[in-house]
Amino acid sequence: MYSRCQWYFKAKITSEEKRRTNYLNGSVPFPGIKTYVDPDTYEDPTQAVHEFTKEIDPSRIHIERVIGAGEFGEVCSGRLRSPGKKEIAVAIKTLKGGYVERQRRDFLREASIMGQFDHPNIIRLEGVVTKSKGS
């Protein structure tokens, strides 16, 4: 599978290249209007996740208890500690170990979609953990 560090790619792209890329992807920027980007247009779902969300260090998350379970994982309540900010209560969605690639892609796709929302009536995605504690 092909992969690259999104933050390198993002840092090297010029504003002209970004503008041209938006038009090529069928996205036309309009002032004051946010355009939804389909995460399926990315070759690697991890690229989409890092485009629309921020990576959270797993040591900043404390899981308190499981509040629900589904086919692919669990939803837990917990706390998020951010440097220089007050600790906040969060819901944490996890992907079960032993997942198949399709489940991983769907999980990351959902995070990419949620990361694009910025509205007071929609729960905000604080970030994702795509790396293990040892990475």
TrEMBL record:
**PANTHER family xrefs:** EPH RECEPTOR A5, EPHRIN TYPE-A RECEPTOR 6
Task: Output the PROSITE patterns linked to this UniProt entry.
Answer: PROTEIN_KINASE_ATP, PROTEIN_KINASE_DOM
Per the UniProt entry, what are the Gene Ontology biological process annotations, in alphabetical order?
axon guidance
Protein kinase domain location is 61-135
Q: Could you state one GO cellular component term attached to this entry?
A: dendrite
Instruction: Tell me the GO molecular function terms.
Output: ATP binding; transmembrane-ephrin receptor activity
Q: Where does ATP bind?
A: 93
Q: What class of enzyme is it?
A: transferase
Localisation per UniProt entry:
Membrane
Q: Which UniProt keywords apply?
A: ATP-binding, Kinase, Membrane, Nucleotide-binding, Receptor, Transferase, Transmembrane, Transmembrane helix, Tyrosine-protein kinase
Membrane protein topology class: Single-pass type I membrane protein
Protein name per UniProt = receptor protein-tyrosine kinase
Q: Kindly indicate where the leader peptide sits in this chain.
A: none
Recorded coiled-coil stretches:
none
Catalysed reaction(s) here are: L-tyrosyl-[protein] + ATP = O-phospho-L-tyrosyl-[protein] + ADP + H(+)
Q: Give its E.C. classification number.
A: 2.7.10.1
